[in-house]
Amino acid sequence: ASRLTGGSISGRDKNMYTYKLIGYSGVRMRRQDELGELNYGRNMVLTNIEWRFPIVSDLNYYMWYMFPDFLFRSFYGVFFVDVGLAWNDEEPKLENSLYSYGVGLRFHTFILQTFPFSLNFIWAYSPVNDKTEFYFLFGPVF
Protein backbone atom coordinates (compact mmCIF):
# COMPACT_ATOMS: atom_id res chain seq x y z
CA ALA A 1 0.00 0.00 0.00
CA SER A 2 1.20 3.51 -0.63
CA ARG A 3 0.03 7.05 -0.13
CA LEU A 4 1.29 10.34 -1.54
CA THR A 5 -0.10 13.58 -0.22
CA GLY A 6 0.83 17.24 -0.34
CA GLY A 7 -0.57 20.59 0.58
CA SER A 8 -0.03 24.31 0.68
CA ILE A 9 -1.59 26.94 2.94
CA SER A 10 -2.20 30.37 1.42
CA GLY A 11 -4.36 33.40 1.98
CA ARG A 12 -4.40 36.16 4.52
CA ASP A 13 -4.33 33.76 7.51
CA LYS A 14 -1.48 31.59 6.21
CA ASN A 15 0.78 32.52 9.12
CA MET A 16 -1.70 31.10 11.64
CA TYR A 17 -1.62 27.50 10.38
CA THR A 18 1.07 24.94 9.57
CA TYR A 19 1.30 21.31 8.57
CA LYS A 20 2.91 18.92 11.04
CA LEU A 21 4.82 15.96 9.59
CA ILE A 22 5.63 13.78 12.61
CA GLY A 23 3.08 11.31 13.97
CA TYR A 24 1.28 8.14 12.97
CA SER A 25 -0.50 9.77 10.03
CA GLY A 26 2.78 11.30 8.83
CA VAL A 27 6.41 10.34 9.30
CA ARG A 28 6.41 7.76 12.09
CA MET A 29 9.31 8.89 14.25
CA ARG A 30 10.02 10.13 17.75
CA ARG A 31 8.86 13.67 18.39
CA GLN A 32 11.86 15.79 19.25
CA ASP A 33 12.12 19.52 19.86
CA GLU A 34 15.61 19.34 18.37
CA LEU A 35 14.04 18.96 14.92
CA GLY A 36 12.56 22.43 15.25
CA GLU A 37 11.20 23.83 12.02
CA LEU A 38 11.86 20.63 10.05
CA ASN A 39 8.59 19.27 11.43
CA TYR A 40 6.38 22.26 10.51
CA GLY A 41 5.64 24.30 7.41
CA ARG A 42 2.94 25.94 5.31
CA ASN A 43 3.82 23.57 2.45
CA MET A 44 4.37 19.85 2.67
CA VAL A 45 4.75 16.66 0.71
CA LEU A 46 4.53 13.23 2.33
CA THR A 47 4.70 9.63 1.16
CA ASN A 48 4.08 6.41 3.09
CA ILE A 49 4.94 3.05 1.54
CA GLU A 50 3.96 -0.22 3.24
CA TRP A 51 4.39 -3.85 2.33
CA ARG A 52 1.67 -5.83 4.09
CA PHE A 53 1.94 -9.60 4.22
CA PRO A 54 -0.34 -12.17 5.86
CA ILE A 55 0.97 -14.09 8.85
CA VAL A 56 -2.38 -15.78 9.50
CA SER A 57 -4.89 -14.80 6.82
CA ASP A 58 -7.87 -16.82 8.08
CA LEU A 59 -7.69 -16.69 11.88
CA ASN A 60 -11.45 -16.40 12.59
CA TYR A 61 -11.10 -16.46 16.38
CA TYR A 62 -14.33 -15.40 18.07
CA MET A 63 -14.16 -13.99 21.63
CA TRP A 64 -17.81 -14.42 22.61
CA TYR A 65 -17.02 -14.17 26.34
CA MET A 66 -16.12 -10.44 26.16
CA PHE A 67 -18.38 -7.46 25.74
CA PRO A 68 -18.31 -6.17 23.16
CA ASP A 69 -17.43 -9.43 21.46
CA PHE A 70 -14.47 -9.49 19.07
CA LEU A 71 -13.94 -11.52 15.93
CA PHE A 72 -10.24 -11.68 15.02
CA ARG A 73 -10.17 -12.19 11.24
CA SER A 74 -6.51 -11.98 10.25
CA PHE A 75 -3.03 -11.12 11.41
CA TYR A 76 -0.60 -9.21 9.16
CA GLY A 77 2.99 -8.07 9.26
CA VAL A 78 4.05 -4.69 7.88
CA PHE A 79 7.32 -3.19 6.62
CA PHE A 80 7.18 0.55 5.93
CA VAL A 81 9.13 3.61 4.81
CA ASP A 82 7.91 7.18 5.40
CA VAL A 83 9.40 10.33 3.83
CA GLY A 84 8.17 13.89 4.32
CA LEU A 85 9.29 17.45 3.71
CA ALA A 86 7.79 20.66 5.12
CA TRP A 87 8.81 24.21 4.27
CA ASN A 88 7.53 27.77 4.40
CA ASP A 89 8.08 30.42 1.72
CA GLU A 90 11.65 29.48 0.85
CA GLU A 91 12.57 26.81 -1.69
CA PRO A 92 12.31 23.26 -0.30
CA LYS A 93 15.64 21.56 0.43
CA LEU A 94 15.92 17.78 0.23
CA GLU A 95 18.42 17.75 3.11
CA ASN A 96 15.56 18.93 5.37
CA SER A 97 13.53 15.77 4.65
CA LEU A 98 12.34 13.63 7.53
CA TYR A 99 12.25 9.89 7.03
CA SER A 100 11.79 6.69 8.98
CA TYR A 101 11.35 2.98 8.46
CA GLY A 102 10.18 0.09 10.57
CA VAL A 103 8.05 -2.98 11.12
CA GLY A 104 4.66 -3.66 12.58
CA LEU A 105 1.95 -6.18 13.40
CA ARG A 106 -1.68 -5.59 12.50
CA PHE A 107 -4.76 -7.47 13.72
CA HIS A 108 -7.93 -7.11 11.64
CA THR A 109 -10.91 -7.53 13.94
CA PHE A 110 -14.64 -6.87 14.05
CA ILE A 111 -16.57 -5.56 17.04
CA LEU A 112 -19.97 -7.19 17.49
CA GLN A 113 -19.11 -9.10 14.28
CA THR A 114 -20.13 -6.03 12.28
CA PHE A 115 -17.80 -3.06 12.70
CA PRO A 116 -14.25 -3.31 11.27
CA PHE A 117 -11.53 -2.51 13.77
CA SER A 118 -7.75 -2.69 13.45
CA LEU A 119 -5.13 -3.07 16.21
CA ASN A 120 -1.62 -1.92 15.23
CA PHE A 121 1.72 -2.42 16.96
CA ILE A 122 4.45 -0.47 15.16
CA TRP A 123 8.16 0.04 15.80
CA ALA A 124 9.76 2.92 13.85
CA TYR A 125 13.39 4.04 13.54
CA SER A 126 14.53 7.37 12.12
CA PRO A 127 18.16 7.95 11.07
CA VAL A 128 17.43 11.72 11.11
CA ASN A 129 17.61 11.86 14.91
CA ASP A 130 18.78 8.27 15.58
CA LYS A 131 15.70 7.54 17.73
CA THR A 132 13.14 4.76 17.87
CA GLU A 133 9.44 5.00 18.65
CA PHE A 134 6.82 2.38 19.50
CA TYR A 135 3.19 2.97 18.50
CA PHE A 136 0.07 1.15 19.67
CA LEU A 137 -2.88 2.29 17.62
CA PHE A 138 -6.41 1.23 16.90
CA GLY A 139 -8.66 2.31 14.11
CA PRO A 140 -8.47 2.48 10.32
CA VAL A 141 -5.30 2.31 8.23
CA PHE A 142 -4.66 4.44 5.18
Automatic annotation (TrEMBL):
Residue ranges of domain Bacterial surface antigen (D15) in the record: 32-139
Transmembrane segments: 70-87, 107-125
GO cellular component: outer membrane
Pfam family, one: Omp85
Keyword Lyase in annotation: no
Localization per record: Membrane
Main location: membrane
Name of the protein this chain belongs to: Bacterial surface antigen (D15) domain-containing protein
Record's keyword terms, sorted: Membrane, Transmembrane, Transmembrane helix
UniProt cross-references to Gene3D superfamilies, sorted A to Z: membrane protein fhac: a member of the omp85/tpsb transporter family (2.40.160.50)
Matching InterPro entries: Bac_surfAg_D15
